[in-house]
Amino acid sequence: MTLITNAVHCCNCKPLLTQECIANWGRKRPRSGKNFRIAPNEESAIAKAIRAASSRPGEAIFYPYEGTTFSSVEEAKDFYNLYSWERGFGIRLHRGRSNRADYQTSQDIVCSCEGRPKKANSASARTECKARIRLLRGQDDSWYIKTAIDTHNHRFTTAYEENKQWRSHGSLDPLTKDFIRKLRENNVTLGRVCNILGVSDNAAPSCIRKEVVRAWCAKLSQLNLVDDIGKTMNLLQEMKSKDPLFEVRFRSNSNGSLRSMIWCSGKNRWDYSNFSDVVTFDTTYRTNLYSLPFGLFVGVNNHFQSIIFGGLLLTSEKTEDFEWAFTQFVDIMGGKAPVTMLIAMTKAMKSTMPNTNHRWCRWHVLKDAKKHLGQFFSKYSTFKSEFKEIITFITEKHIFESMWQTLTKKYGLTNHWFLKRIYKYRRMWAKPYFMDKFCAGMTSTQRSESANHMIKSLIQKAAPMHLFVSKFSEFQADRKSDESKQNFETEQVSRKLTTKLPIEKHANKVYTKAMYLHFCDQLLESGSFILKHKASTTEFILIDTRLEGTDIARDIHVTLEGENYIRCQCGLYEHMGMLCRHAIKVPIAIPQI
Hints:
It is found in: Nucleus. Keywords: Metal-binding, Nucleus, Zinc, Zinc-finger. It contains 23 helices and 19 strands. It has a 7-stranded mixed beta sheet, sandwiched between helices.
Protein backbone atom coordinates (compact mmCIF):
# COMPACT_ATOMS: atom_id res chain seq x y z
CA MET A 1 0.00 0.00 0.00
CA THR A 2 1.56 3.29 -1.11
CA LEU A 3 0.43 6.73 0.14
CA ILE A 4 0.04 9.21 -2.73
CA THR A 5 -1.09 12.82 -1.91
CA ASN A 6 -4.27 12.54 0.20
CA ALA A 7 -5.30 8.95 -0.61
CA VAL A 8 -4.16 5.36 -0.23
CA HIS A 9 -4.18 3.26 -3.43
CA CYS A 10 -4.20 -0.46 -4.04
CA CYS A 11 -2.72 -2.23 -7.00
CA ASN A 12 -5.56 -1.22 -9.33
CA CYS A 13 -4.95 2.47 -8.42
CA LYS A 14 -8.38 3.04 -6.81
CA PRO A 15 -8.39 5.17 -3.62
CA LEU A 16 -9.30 3.20 -0.51
CA LEU A 17 -8.67 5.44 2.53
CA THR A 18 -8.12 9.18 2.91
CA GLN A 19 -5.71 10.72 5.39
CA GLU A 20 -8.74 11.84 7.46
CA CYS A 21 -9.89 8.22 7.67
CA ILE A 22 -6.40 7.13 8.80
CA ALA A 23 -6.41 9.86 11.50
CA ASN A 24 -9.76 8.64 12.77
CA TRP A 25 -8.86 4.97 12.39
CA GLY A 26 -8.85 4.22 16.08
CA ARG A 27 -11.81 6.35 17.09
CA LYS A 28 -15.10 4.80 18.16
CA ARG A 29 -17.98 5.29 15.79
CA PRO A 30 -20.24 8.05 17.27
CA ARG A 31 -23.71 7.15 18.44
CA SER A 32 -26.57 8.33 16.26
CA GLY A 33 -30.35 8.21 16.35
CA LYS A 34 -33.43 10.24 17.08
CA ASN A 35 -33.67 12.92 19.77
CA PHE A 36 -36.66 11.18 21.29
CA ARG A 37 -37.90 7.73 22.21
CA ILE A 38 -41.05 6.17 20.81
CA ALA A 39 -42.82 4.33 23.65
CA PRO A 40 -46.59 4.50 23.08
CA ASN A 41 -47.43 1.82 25.66
CA GLU A 42 -45.30 3.24 28.48
CA GLU A 43 -46.81 5.42 31.19
CA SER A 44 -45.47 8.99 31.13
CA ALA A 45 -43.45 10.48 33.97
CA ILE A 46 -46.24 12.97 34.71
CA ALA A 47 -48.83 10.17 35.00
CA LYS A 48 -46.51 8.18 37.27
CA ALA A 49 -45.94 11.20 39.52
CA ILE A 50 -49.66 11.87 39.87
CA ARG A 51 -50.33 8.19 40.68
CA ALA A 52 -47.56 8.10 43.29
CA ALA A 53 -48.51 11.40 44.94
CA SER A 54 -50.95 9.75 47.36
CA SER A 55 -48.07 7.76 48.92
CA ARG A 56 -46.01 10.93 49.48
CA PRO A 57 -48.29 13.31 51.39
CA GLY A 58 -46.88 16.78 51.94
CA GLU A 59 -44.26 16.44 49.20
CA ALA A 60 -44.24 18.07 45.79
CA ILE A 61 -46.13 16.00 43.25
CA PHE A 62 -43.65 16.55 40.43
CA TYR A 63 -40.36 16.48 42.32
CA PRO A 64 -37.50 15.78 39.85
CA TYR A 65 -35.97 12.66 41.40
CA GLU A 66 -32.69 11.49 39.91
CA GLY A 67 -33.29 8.62 37.54
CA THR A 68 -36.73 9.81 36.40
CA THR A 69 -37.08 8.81 32.74
CA PHE A 70 -38.62 10.76 29.87
CA SER A 71 -39.20 10.12 26.18
CA SER A 72 -37.99 13.58 25.08
CA VAL A 73 -36.49 16.83 26.31
CA GLU A 74 -39.88 18.49 25.83
CA GLU A 75 -41.50 16.01 28.20
CA ALA A 76 -38.76 16.59 30.77
CA LYS A 77 -39.18 20.34 30.45
CA ASP A 78 -42.94 20.08 30.98
CA PHE A 79 -42.37 17.89 34.04
CA TYR A 80 -39.82 20.26 35.60
CA ASN A 81 -42.05 23.23 34.74
CA LEU A 82 -44.90 21.65 36.72
CA TYR A 83 -42.56 21.30 39.67
CA SER A 84 -41.42 24.91 39.33
CA TRP A 85 -45.09 25.99 39.40
CA GLU A 86 -45.55 24.08 42.66
CA ARG A 87 -42.52 25.76 44.24
CA GLY A 88 -42.88 29.24 42.68
CA PHE A 89 -40.06 29.76 40.19
CA GLY A 90 -39.55 29.60 36.44
CA ILE A 91 -37.29 27.51 34.21
CA ARG A 92 -35.55 27.66 30.84
CA LEU A 93 -33.37 25.47 28.64
CA HIS A 94 -29.63 25.96 29.12
CA ARG A 95 -26.57 24.23 27.68
CA GLY A 96 -26.72 20.98 25.78
CA ARG A 97 -24.17 18.75 24.10
CA SER A 98 -24.17 16.77 20.87
CA ASN A 99 -21.61 14.33 19.40
CA ARG A 100 -19.99 14.34 15.98
CA ALA A 101 -23.10 12.70 14.47
CA ASP A 102 -25.22 15.62 15.72
CA TYR A 103 -26.83 13.29 18.27
CA GLN A 104 -27.72 15.19 21.43
CA THR A 105 -26.31 13.54 24.53
CA SER A 106 -27.11 15.97 27.35
CA GLN A 107 -29.32 18.93 28.21
CA ASP A 108 -29.47 21.26 31.21
CA ILE A 109 -32.73 22.84 32.35
CA VAL A 110 -32.08 25.65 34.82
CA CYS A 111 -33.94 28.05 37.07
CA SER A 112 -34.89 31.32 35.38
CA CYS A 113 -32.74 33.13 37.96
CA GLU A 114 -29.59 31.30 36.80
CA GLY A 115 -26.69 33.44 35.58
CA ARG A 116 -25.67 37.04 36.06
CA PRO A 117 -27.31 40.21 34.75
CA LYS A 118 -25.76 41.49 31.52
CA LYS A 119 -25.05 44.80 33.23
CA ALA A 120 -24.15 45.34 36.85
CA ASN A 121 -26.74 48.04 37.47
CA SER A 122 -29.79 46.79 35.57
CA ALA A 123 -33.27 45.42 36.18
CA SER A 124 -32.92 41.63 36.12
CA ALA A 125 -34.32 38.55 37.88
CA ARG A 126 -31.01 36.69 37.56
CA THR A 127 -29.32 35.92 40.90
CA GLU A 128 -26.77 33.23 39.89
CA CYS A 129 -29.14 30.56 41.17
CA LYS A 130 -27.63 27.05 40.89
CA ALA A 131 -30.90 25.08 40.79
CA ARG A 132 -31.10 22.83 37.75
CA ILE A 133 -31.57 19.33 36.38
CA ARG A 134 -29.16 17.64 33.97
CA LEU A 135 -30.55 15.17 31.44
CA LEU A 136 -28.52 12.38 29.83
CA ARG A 137 -29.42 9.83 27.15
CA GLY A 138 -30.38 6.24 27.83
CA GLN A 139 -29.51 3.28 25.61
CA ASP A 140 -33.04 3.27 24.12
CA ASP A 141 -32.87 6.98 23.09
CA SER A 142 -34.72 8.00 26.26
CA TRP A 143 -33.70 10.82 28.62
CA TYR A 144 -33.19 10.55 32.38
CA ILE A 145 -32.30 12.93 35.19
CA LYS A 146 -28.64 12.44 36.05
CA THR A 147 -28.33 15.36 38.46
CA ALA A 148 -30.96 17.43 40.29
CA ILE A 149 -29.95 20.52 42.30
CA ASP A 150 -32.88 22.00 44.21
CA THR A 151 -31.14 24.79 46.13
CA HIS A 152 -32.32 28.32 45.27
CA ASN A 153 -30.90 31.69 46.43
CA HIS A 154 -34.03 33.82 45.82
CA ARG A 155 -37.57 34.05 47.14
CA PHE A 156 -40.31 32.00 45.55
CA THR A 157 -43.49 33.44 44.11
CA THR A 158 -46.56 32.37 46.07
CA ALA A 159 -49.66 33.90 44.49
CA TYR A 160 -51.19 32.55 41.28
CA GLU A 161 -50.93 35.90 39.48
CA GLU A 162 -47.23 36.11 40.44
CA ASN A 163 -46.51 32.56 39.32
CA LYS A 164 -47.75 33.10 35.80
CA GLN A 165 -45.37 36.04 35.31
CA TRP A 166 -42.50 33.57 34.83
CA ARG A 167 -42.03 33.10 31.08
CA SER A 168 -42.07 29.31 31.31
CA HIS A 169 -45.56 29.41 32.83
CA GLY A 170 -46.97 31.91 30.36
CA SER A 171 -45.63 30.41 27.14
CA LEU A 172 -47.94 29.26 24.38
CA ASP A 173 -47.95 25.67 23.18
CA PRO A 174 -48.14 24.96 19.39
CA LEU A 175 -51.87 24.10 19.48
CA THR A 176 -52.69 27.36 21.26
CA LYS A 177 -50.55 29.33 18.81
CA ASP A 178 -52.35 27.76 15.86
CA PHE A 179 -55.72 28.43 17.52
CA ILE A 180 -54.83 32.11 18.00
CA ARG A 181 -53.66 32.32 14.38
CA LYS A 182 -57.02 31.04 13.13
CA LEU A 183 -58.91 33.43 15.40
CA ARG A 184 -56.91 36.41 14.15
CA GLU A 185 -57.32 35.38 10.52
CA ASN A 186 -61.07 35.44 11.13
CA ASN A 187 -60.95 39.02 12.43
CA VAL A 188 -61.30 38.18 16.13
CA THR A 189 -59.95 41.11 18.13
CA LEU A 190 -57.12 40.74 20.64
CA GLY A 191 -59.50 41.34 23.53
CA ARG A 192 -61.86 38.60 22.37
CA VAL A 193 -58.95 36.21 21.79
CA CYS A 194 -57.90 36.73 25.41
CA ASN A 195 -61.47 36.16 26.59
CA ILE A 196 -61.72 32.93 24.61
CA LEU A 197 -58.43 31.71 26.11
CA GLY A 198 -59.61 32.67 29.60
CA VAL A 199 -56.80 35.14 30.21
CA SER A 200 -59.04 37.48 32.22
CA ASP A 201 -61.53 34.89 33.49
CA ASN A 202 -61.49 34.72 37.28
CA ALA A 203 -63.83 31.73 37.32
CA ALA A 204 -61.50 29.61 35.17
CA PRO A 205 -58.03 31.20 35.44
CA SER A 206 -55.44 30.60 32.74
CA CYS A 207 -51.65 30.72 32.94
CA ILE A 208 -51.51 32.64 29.68
CA ARG A 209 -50.70 36.33 29.99
CA LYS A 210 -52.16 39.01 27.76
CA GLU A 211 -48.67 40.29 26.95
CA VAL A 212 -47.71 36.88 25.54
CA VAL A 213 -50.85 36.75 23.39
CA ARG A 214 -50.21 40.30 22.14
CA ALA A 215 -46.59 39.46 21.30
CA TRP A 216 -47.63 36.35 19.36
CA CYS A 217 -50.28 38.31 17.45
CA ALA A 218 -47.66 40.92 16.56
CA LYS A 219 -45.32 38.19 15.34
CA LEU A 220 -48.14 36.71 13.24
CA SER A 221 -48.65 40.11 11.62
CA GLN A 222 -44.95 40.32 10.80
CA LEU A 223 -44.93 36.81 9.36
CA ASN A 224 -47.95 37.64 7.19
CA LEU A 225 -46.08 40.59 5.68
CA VAL A 226 -43.18 38.46 4.48
CA ASP A 227 -43.40 38.00 0.68
CA ASP A 228 -47.05 39.05 0.61
CA ILE A 229 -47.19 39.43 -3.18
CA GLY A 230 -45.47 36.07 -3.68
CA LYS A 231 -47.96 34.39 -1.34
CA THR A 232 -50.81 36.05 -3.21
CA MET A 233 -49.54 34.81 -6.57
CA ASN A 234 -49.13 31.28 -5.19
CA LEU A 235 -52.64 31.40 -3.74
CA LEU A 236 -54.14 32.54 -7.04
CA GLN A 237 -52.22 29.83 -8.87
CA GLU A 238 -53.55 27.25 -6.43
CA MET A 239 -57.10 28.53 -6.92
CA LYS A 240 -56.58 28.29 -10.69
CA SER A 241 -55.39 24.68 -10.42
CA LYS A 242 -58.52 23.74 -8.47
CA ASP A 243 -60.88 25.76 -10.67
CA PRO A 244 -60.01 25.66 -14.40
CA LEU A 245 -62.51 28.47 -15.12
CA PHE A 246 -60.90 30.77 -12.56
CA GLU A 247 -59.67 33.97 -14.20
CA VAL A 248 -57.45 36.76 -12.87
CA ARG A 249 -56.20 39.88 -14.64
CA PHE A 250 -53.47 42.29 -13.52
CA ARG A 251 -52.50 45.81 -14.41
CA SER A 252 -49.08 47.12 -13.43
CA ASN A 253 -47.24 50.43 -13.49
CA SER A 254 -44.18 51.17 -15.59
CA ASN A 255 -41.98 50.17 -12.64
CA GLY A 256 -43.68 46.77 -12.42
CA SER A 257 -45.71 47.41 -9.25
CA LEU A 258 -49.29 46.21 -9.06
CA ARG A 259 -51.89 48.81 -10.00
CA SER A 260 -55.14 46.86 -10.35
CA MET A 261 -56.33 43.28 -10.05
CA ILE A 262 -59.65 41.67 -10.94
CA TRP A 263 -60.54 38.02 -10.44
CA CYS A 264 -63.59 35.81 -11.03
CA SER A 265 -64.10 32.16 -10.14
CA GLY A 266 -65.80 29.56 -12.28
CA LYS A 267 -68.87 29.82 -10.05
CA ASN A 268 -68.91 33.60 -10.55
CA ARG A 269 -68.84 33.18 -14.31
CA TRP A 270 -71.55 30.50 -14.27
CA ASP A 271 -73.80 32.69 -12.11
CA TYR A 272 -73.24 35.64 -14.42
CA SER A 273 -74.26 33.58 -17.46
CA ASN A 274 -77.64 33.01 -15.77
CA PHE A 275 -78.24 36.18 -13.75
CA SER A 276 -76.49 39.01 -15.62
CA ASP A 277 -79.70 41.04 -16.15
CA VAL A 278 -78.77 43.42 -13.36
CA VAL A 279 -75.43 44.09 -11.66
CA THR A 280 -74.51 46.47 -8.87
CA PHE A 281 -70.99 47.74 -8.32
CA ASP A 282 -69.53 49.74 -5.48
CA THR A 283 -66.10 50.40 -3.93
CA THR A 284 -66.70 50.99 -0.27
CA TYR A 285 -64.35 48.50 1.37
CA ARG A 286 -60.81 49.66 2.21
CA THR A 287 -59.87 47.45 5.16
CA ASN A 288 -56.64 45.92 3.91
CA LEU A 289 -52.96 46.44 4.55
CA TYR A 290 -52.46 48.78 1.60
CA SER A 291 -55.79 50.68 1.98
CA LEU A 292 -56.71 49.65 -1.55
CA PRO A 293 -60.32 50.29 -2.60
CA PHE A 294 -62.08 46.96 -3.03
CA GLY A 295 -64.95 46.71 -5.49
CA LEU A 296 -67.60 44.03 -5.80
CA PHE A 297 -69.71 43.05 -8.79
CA VAL A 298 -72.94 41.75 -7.23
CA GLY A 299 -76.15 40.33 -8.68
CA VAL A 300 -79.29 38.51 -7.55
CA ASN A 301 -80.11 34.83 -8.10
CA ASN A 302 -83.48 33.09 -8.30
CA HIS A 303 -83.63 32.85 -4.50
CA PHE A 304 -83.33 36.65 -4.17
CA GLN A 305 -79.89 36.12 -2.67
CA SER A 306 -76.91 38.34 -3.37
CA ILE A 307 -74.38 36.55 -5.56
CA ILE A 308 -70.82 37.61 -6.36
CA PHE A 309 -69.68 38.02 -9.95
CA GLY A 310 -66.13 39.16 -9.20
CA GLY A 311 -63.77 41.13 -6.98
CA LEU A 312 -61.59 44.12 -7.83
CA LEU A 313 -58.61 45.74 -6.09
CA LEU A 314 -57.54 49.21 -7.19
CA THR A 315 -54.77 51.58 -6.18
CA SER A 316 -56.77 54.63 -7.28
CA GLU A 317 -60.33 55.45 -8.31
CA LYS A 318 -59.77 57.42 -11.50
CA THR A 319 -61.97 57.05 -14.57
CA GLU A 320 -59.24 55.17 -16.45
CA ASP A 321 -58.99 52.64 -13.60
CA PHE A 322 -62.70 51.86 -13.76
CA GLU A 323 -62.61 51.74 -17.56
CA TRP A 324 -59.90 49.08 -17.36
CA ALA A 325 -61.86 47.16 -14.68
CA PHE A 326 -65.17 47.18 -16.59
CA THR A 327 -63.47 46.21 -19.85
CA GLN A 328 -61.73 43.27 -18.19
CA PHE A 329 -64.92 42.21 -16.40
CA VAL A 330 -66.94 42.07 -19.63
CA ASP A 331 -64.09 40.24 -21.39
CA ILE A 332 -63.85 37.62 -18.62
CA MET A 333 -67.61 37.10 -18.90
CA GLY A 334 -67.31 36.25 -22.58
CA GLY A 335 -68.07 39.73 -23.92
CA LYS A 336 -71.53 39.81 -22.36
CA ALA A 337 -72.31 43.15 -20.71
CA PRO A 338 -75.03 43.52 -18.04
CA VAL A 339 -78.51 44.59 -19.16
CA THR A 340 -78.81 47.08 -16.30
CA MET A 341 -76.16 48.33 -13.89
CA LEU A 342 -76.51 50.33 -10.68
CA ILE A 343 -73.34 52.34 -10.35
CA ALA A 344 -71.97 55.83 -9.71
CA MET A 345 -69.14 55.78 -12.29
CA THR A 346 -71.14 57.27 -15.19
CA LYS A 347 -68.28 58.23 -17.50
CA ALA A 348 -66.38 54.95 -17.20
CA MET A 349 -69.51 52.92 -17.78
CA LYS A 350 -70.67 54.83 -20.85
CA SER A 351 -67.32 54.33 -22.57
CA THR A 352 -67.09 50.59 -21.81
CA MET A 353 -70.73 49.40 -21.73
CA PRO A 354 -72.66 51.82 -23.97
CA ASN A 355 -75.67 49.51 -24.42
CA THR A 356 -76.17 48.84 -20.71
CA ASN A 357 -78.96 50.66 -18.89
CA HIS A 358 -77.33 52.88 -16.29
CA ARG A 359 -78.97 53.85 -13.02
CA TRP A 360 -77.72 55.70 -9.96
CA CYS A 361 -77.90 54.28 -6.48
CA ARG A 362 -81.00 55.65 -4.75
CA TRP A 363 -79.39 55.16 -1.34
CA HIS A 364 -76.61 57.60 -2.22
CA VAL A 365 -79.21 60.14 -3.36
CA LEU A 366 -80.94 59.87 0.03
CA LYS A 367 -77.57 60.17 1.78
CA ASP A 368 -76.78 63.37 -0.12
CA ALA A 369 -80.29 64.64 0.61
CA LYS A 370 -79.70 64.23 4.32
CA LYS A 371 -76.45 66.16 3.97
CA HIS A 372 -77.91 69.07 1.99
CA LEU A 373 -81.46 69.13 3.41
CA GLY A 374 -80.66 68.35 7.04
CA GLN A 375 -81.80 71.76 8.26
CA PHE A 376 -85.22 71.25 6.66
CA PHE A 377 -85.52 67.78 8.18
CA SER A 378 -85.01 69.41 11.58
CA LYS A 379 -87.13 72.49 10.92
CA TYR A 380 -90.21 70.69 9.53
CA SER A 381 -91.29 67.56 11.36
CA THR A 382 -93.27 66.18 8.40
CA PHE A 383 -90.85 67.05 5.59
CA LYS A 384 -88.61 64.02 6.08
CA SER A 385 -91.45 61.47 6.06
CA GLU A 386 -93.12 63.04 3.02
CA PHE A 387 -89.85 63.22 1.11
CA LYS A 388 -89.02 59.60 1.97
CA GLU A 389 -92.49 58.44 0.86
CA ILE A 390 -92.04 60.00 -2.58
CA ILE A 391 -88.54 58.54 -2.96
CA THR A 392 -89.31 55.05 -1.64
CA PHE A 393 -92.93 54.09 -2.33
CA ILE A 394 -94.22 55.95 -5.38
CA THR A 395 -93.96 53.90 -8.57
CA GLU A 396 -96.08 55.93 -11.04
CA LYS A 397 -94.34 58.71 -12.94
CA HIS A 398 -97.21 61.22 -13.00
CA ILE A 399 -97.88 60.75 -9.28
CA PHE A 400 -94.18 61.14 -8.49
CA GLU A 401 -93.92 64.41 -10.42
CA SER A 402 -97.19 65.75 -8.98
CA MET A 403 -96.19 64.96 -5.38
CA TRP A 404 -92.69 66.38 -5.97
CA GLN A 405 -94.10 69.72 -7.13
CA THR A 406 -96.51 69.80 -4.21
CA LEU A 407 -93.74 69.04 -1.70
CA THR A 408 -91.33 71.69 -2.96
CA LYS A 409 -94.05 74.37 -3.04
CA LYS A 410 -95.34 73.43 0.42
CA TYR A 411 -91.95 73.95 2.06
CA GLY A 412 -90.68 76.74 -0.19
CA LEU A 413 -87.96 74.65 -1.80
CA THR A 414 -88.85 75.16 -5.46
CA ASN A 415 -85.53 76.87 -6.20
CA HIS A 416 -83.33 74.81 -3.88
CA TRP A 417 -80.22 73.92 -5.90
CA PHE A 418 -79.93 70.32 -4.68
CA LEU A 419 -83.59 69.44 -5.26
CA LYS A 420 -83.48 71.05 -8.70
CA ARG A 421 -80.40 69.02 -9.60
CA ILE A 422 -81.70 65.61 -8.51
CA TYR A 423 -85.08 66.32 -10.11
CA LYS A 424 -83.33 67.12 -13.38
CA TYR A 425 -81.67 63.69 -13.29
CA ARG A 426 -84.69 61.86 -11.79
CA ARG A 427 -84.68 59.30 -14.59
CA MET A 428 -81.32 58.07 -13.28
CA TRP A 429 -82.48 57.28 -9.73
CA ALA A 430 -86.23 57.75 -9.12
CA LYS A 431 -88.19 54.51 -8.68
CA PRO A 432 -90.97 55.24 -11.24
CA TYR A 433 -88.32 55.47 -13.97
CA PHE A 434 -86.89 52.10 -12.90
CA MET A 435 -90.15 50.19 -13.22
CA ASP A 436 -89.85 49.43 -16.92
CA LYS A 437 -86.32 48.06 -16.45
CA PHE A 438 -85.66 44.69 -14.86
CA CYS A 439 -83.65 45.27 -11.69
CA ALA A 440 -84.70 42.25 -9.60
CA GLY A 441 -86.24 44.69 -7.14
CA MET A 442 -83.02 46.68 -6.66
CA THR A 443 -82.84 50.46 -6.77
CA SER A 444 -79.53 50.90 -4.97
CA THR A 445 -76.11 49.32 -4.49
CA GLN A 446 -77.20 48.14 -1.05
CA ARG A 447 -76.45 44.52 -1.94
CA SER A 448 -72.83 45.43 -2.77
CA GLU A 449 -72.54 47.38 0.46
CA SER A 450 -74.10 44.52 2.41
CA ALA A 451 -71.58 42.08 0.89
CA ASN A 452 -68.77 44.51 1.75
CA HIS A 453 -70.03 44.63 5.33
CA MET A 454 -70.01 40.83 5.57
CA ILE A 455 -66.47 40.67 4.21
CA LYS A 456 -65.39 43.30 6.71
CA SER A 457 -66.63 41.10 9.54
CA LEU A 458 -64.47 38.22 8.25
CA ILE A 459 -61.19 40.00 7.56
CA GLN A 460 -59.05 41.82 10.11
CA LYS A 461 -58.01 45.39 9.55
CA ALA A 462 -54.72 45.88 7.71
CA ALA A 463 -54.92 42.33 6.35
CA PRO A 464 -52.16 41.47 3.85
CA MET A 465 -53.26 40.84 0.28
CA HIS A 466 -52.90 37.05 0.34
CA LEU A 467 -55.06 36.80 3.46
CA PHE A 468 -57.60 39.18 1.94
CA VAL A 469 -57.90 37.05 -1.20
CA SER A 470 -58.12 33.88 0.87
CA LYS A 471 -60.90 35.23 3.09
CA PHE A 472 -62.78 36.58 0.09
CA SER A 473 -62.71 33.04 -1.31
CA GLU A 474 -64.08 31.72 2.00
CA PHE A 475 -66.83 34.34 1.87
CA GLN A 476 -67.87 33.11 -1.57
CA ALA A 477 -67.90 29.53 -0.27
CA ASP A 478 -70.29 30.64 2.49
CA ARG A 479 -72.56 32.24 -0.10
CA LYS A 480 -72.52 29.02 -2.13
CA SER A 481 -73.51 27.06 0.97
CA ASP A 482 -76.46 29.40 1.59
CA GLU A 483 -77.54 28.97 -2.02
CA SER A 484 -77.36 25.17 -1.71
CA LYS A 485 -79.56 25.36 1.37
CA GLN A 486 -82.19 27.31 -0.55
CA ASN A 487 -81.99 24.82 -3.43
CA PHE A 488 -82.59 21.97 -1.00
CA GLU A 489 -85.57 23.67 0.64
CA THR A 490 -87.04 24.50 -2.77
CA GLU A 491 -86.72 21.02 -4.21
CA GLN A 492 -87.11 18.77 -1.17
CA VAL A 493 -89.31 20.58 1.37
CA SER A 494 -93.02 20.92 0.63
CA ARG A 495 -94.76 24.26 1.27
CA LYS A 496 -98.07 24.95 2.93
CA LEU A 497 -100.55 26.70 0.64
CA THR A 498 -102.25 29.81 1.95
CA THR A 499 -105.35 30.11 -0.24
CA LYS A 500 -105.27 26.94 -2.40
CA LEU A 501 -106.23 29.05 -5.42
CA PRO A 502 -105.12 27.60 -8.79
CA ILE A 503 -102.73 30.54 -9.33
CA GLU A 504 -101.06 29.85 -5.98
CA LYS A 505 -100.75 26.14 -6.74
CA HIS A 506 -99.06 26.99 -10.02
CA ALA A 507 -96.72 29.49 -8.33
CA ASN A 508 -95.80 26.77 -5.83
CA LYS A 509 -94.67 24.56 -8.71
CA VAL A 510 -92.67 27.06 -10.77
CA TYR A 511 -91.19 29.42 -8.15
CA THR A 512 -88.33 28.91 -5.73
CA LYS A 513 -89.18 29.11 -2.05
CA ALA A 514 -88.08 32.74 -1.71
CA MET A 515 -89.93 33.79 -4.87
CA TYR A 516 -93.04 31.91 -3.75
CA LEU A 517 -93.07 33.73 -0.40
CA HIS A 518 -92.83 37.08 -2.21
CA PHE A 519 -95.69 35.99 -4.46
CA CYS A 520 -97.82 35.02 -1.44
CA ASP A 521 -97.38 38.54 -0.04
CA GLN A 522 -98.70 39.98 -3.31
CA LEU A 523 -101.51 37.42 -3.40
CA LEU A 524 -102.70 38.36 0.08
CA GLU A 525 -102.44 42.08 -0.71
CA SER A 526 -104.61 41.56 -3.81
CA GLY A 527 -107.54 40.92 -1.49
CA SER A 528 -107.63 44.63 -0.63
CA PHE A 529 -108.37 45.59 -4.26
CA ILE A 530 -111.67 45.47 -6.11
CA LEU A 531 -112.46 45.78 -9.78
CA LYS A 532 -113.93 49.28 -10.07
CA HIS A 533 -115.03 48.90 -13.66
CA LYS A 534 -114.06 47.41 -16.97
CA ALA A 535 -112.87 50.15 -19.35
CA SER A 536 -112.76 47.78 -22.33
CA THR A 537 -112.46 44.09 -23.07
CA THR A 538 -108.73 44.28 -22.30
CA GLU A 539 -108.46 47.16 -19.79
CA PHE A 540 -109.49 46.97 -16.15
CA ILE A 541 -109.47 49.63 -13.45
CA LEU A 542 -108.88 48.64 -9.83
CA ILE A 543 -108.97 50.59 -6.57
CA ASP A 544 -107.57 49.93 -3.11
CA THR A 545 -110.51 49.59 -0.71
CA ARG A 546 -108.31 50.74 2.18
CA LEU A 547 -107.81 54.12 0.49
CA GLU A 548 -111.29 54.50 -0.98
CA GLY A 549 -112.77 57.92 -0.20
CA THR A 550 -109.39 59.46 0.77
CA ASP A 551 -107.39 62.12 -1.04
CA ILE A 552 -104.65 59.68 -1.98
CA ALA A 553 -106.98 57.06 -3.50
CA ARG A 554 -106.15 56.44 -7.14
CA ASP A 555 -107.19 54.15 -9.96
CA ILE A 556 -104.87 51.33 -11.03
CA HIS A 557 -104.97 50.41 -14.71
CA VAL A 558 -104.32 46.79 -15.72
CA THR A 559 -104.26 45.76 -19.38
CA LEU A 560 -104.48 42.33 -21.00
CA GLU A 561 -102.03 42.00 -23.89
CA GLY A 562 -102.81 38.77 -25.69
CA GLU A 563 -103.57 35.55 -23.87
CA ASN A 564 -100.43 35.26 -21.79
CA TYR A 565 -99.43 38.76 -20.71
CA ILE A 566 -100.89 41.23 -18.21
CA ARG A 567 -99.43 44.74 -17.95
CA CYS A 568 -99.96 46.87 -14.87
CA GLN A 569 -99.11 50.52 -14.61
CA CYS A 570 -97.19 49.91 -11.37
CA GLY A 571 -94.54 48.04 -13.42
CA LEU A 572 -93.66 45.49 -10.74
CA TYR A 573 -93.51 42.59 -13.22
CA GLU A 574 -91.13 44.43 -15.55
CA HIS A 575 -89.05 45.62 -12.59
CA MET A 576 -88.95 42.46 -10.48
CA GLY A 577 -90.12 39.61 -12.71
CA MET A 578 -93.14 38.78 -10.54
CA LEU A 579 -96.86 39.50 -10.90
CA CYS A 580 -98.06 42.40 -8.78
CA ARG A 581 -101.14 42.40 -6.54
CA HIS A 582 -103.12 44.27 -9.21
CA ALA A 583 -102.34 41.82 -11.99
CA ILE A 584 -103.15 38.89 -9.70
CA LYS A 585 -106.56 40.39 -8.88
CA VAL A 586 -107.74 40.63 -12.51
CA PRO A 587 -107.89 36.87 -13.40
CA ILE A 588 -109.46 36.17 -10.02
CA ALA A 589 -112.08 38.91 -10.48
CA ILE A 590 -112.92 38.36 -14.19
CA PRO A 591 -115.19 35.31 -13.57
CA GLN A 592 -117.21 37.46 -11.14
CA ILE A 593 -117.97 40.17 -13.74
